[in-house]
Amino acid sequence: MFRPLLPRLLAGLLAGLCATQAQAGLFDDEEARARINSLRNELAGRIEKVEANHARAQVDLANQIEELKTEVARLRGENEVLTNDLANANKRQKDFYVDLDNRLRKLETTPATEAPQQATPAAAADPAAESRDYEAALTQLRGAKYKEAAAGFIAFTKAYPASSFLPSAHFWAASALYQLKDNIGAAEQYNKVATQWPDDSRAPDALLGLASTQQARGDNVGASRSLEKLVAKYPSSSAAQIARQRLKK
């Protein structure tokens, strides 16, 4: 009676055991899938953050590049302006020297022909050497070789004390010394032109140069006096116009 029941019990136990194992396997698969999905979501989030950061970095870099381009363009523009201003200033300076010297030469040819009584003392000087030495110093000045130009003009004034170019030589010596920031030496040369040759075409510019040397040395009172003297004595000169502007400051 009990023997036929045993196989049934064994079969029931085996079936329950298999069902338990199947449920355990099912739970393991679901947990693994959950973990995989969690990792996928985490990875996707990180990728999004990396991509967002990368995009922001690219935008920032692009902005920085544009700013640098703008800055470079601005600096190039400023450099071009400064280069152009410097070139124009150098040209104006050379043109000023040439024009002033040409005007002086035209004025100097007249007294040279009207004063035959001076021919005898001047005969000792070689006219060709006199002209050559003056031109040599003037060439140095035009080439912005101020030290050589100053020495050349000062030597000229000593070698040719009766030369009709003497006022010009003193004036250009003063200009060269002023460029060398030798304000005392420049003032001495400018003052000679203004006092010894007051009717010379360079006298107004000499007073203007004298005021510049005084101002450079901090003598504002002396500079103002020189400018006022210039305006009073040569009111229609171009130097007087500059002097009026300086006196207003």
From TrEMBL:
Q: Give the GO biological process terms.
A: FtsZ-dependent cytokinesis; protein trimerization
**YbgF trimerisation domain segment(s):** 46-113
Coiled coil feature spans: 40-92
Compartments, as annotated in UniProt: Periplasm
**Keywords associated with the record:** Cell cycle, Cell division, Coiled coil, Periplasm, Signal
Task: Identify one Pfam family in the record.
Answer: YfiO
InterPro entries assigned to the protein according to its UniProt record, in alphabetical order: BamD-like, CpoB, CpoB_C, TPR-like_helical_dom_sf, YbgF_tri
Query: What cellular-component terms does GO give this entry?
Result: outer membrane-bounded periplasmic space
Return the Gene3D superfamilies for the record.
Answer: 1.20.5.110, Tetratricopeptide repeat domain
Xref: HAMAP family: CpoB
What this chain does, per the record? Mediates coordination of peptidoglycan synthesis and outer membrane constriction during cell division.
Could you tell me what this protein is called? Cell division coordinator CpoB
Task: Tell me the lineage of the source organism.
Answer: Bacteria, Pseudomonadati, Pseudomonadota, Betaproteobacteria, Rhodocyclales
Gene that encodes it: ybgF
